[in-house]
């Protein structure tokens, strides 16, 4: 199986086993529910699979749980690579998505309506 096929299969499995925070955020982002912006979830980009991406605005949204405390270096490398490819990256903790959803959505919307360099 090719690397691309493996990535697509892995992304499909990840969509089927979303965390509570990912599922909650997806309910608010899917089908253009956030000001008409279209998002994809568990999308392969290069060698990574990002939680959510709006290709139109080149914005990646990552939802991190406790395991990311130990993965700060790999998360930083991932963010650096995505940014080198022209993406902006927002990261939120699971608790923020679950307990402060309105604030998370407001920050995502702010980033969507602010183009790079403004």
Automatic annotation (TrEMBL):
Keyword Nuclease: yes
Entries under Pfam families matching the protein: DUF559 (PF04480)
GO molecular function: endonuclease activity
InterPro entries named among the record's database cross-references: DUF559, Endonuclease_DUF559_bact, Restrct_endonuc-II-like
DUF559 domain residues: 9-112
Keywords noted in UniProt: Endonuclease, Hydrolase, Nuclease
Entry keyword annotation includes DNA-binding: no
Signal peptide: none
Name used for this protein in its record: Very-short-patch-repair endonuclease
Organism this protein belongs to: Pseudoxanthomonas sacheonensis
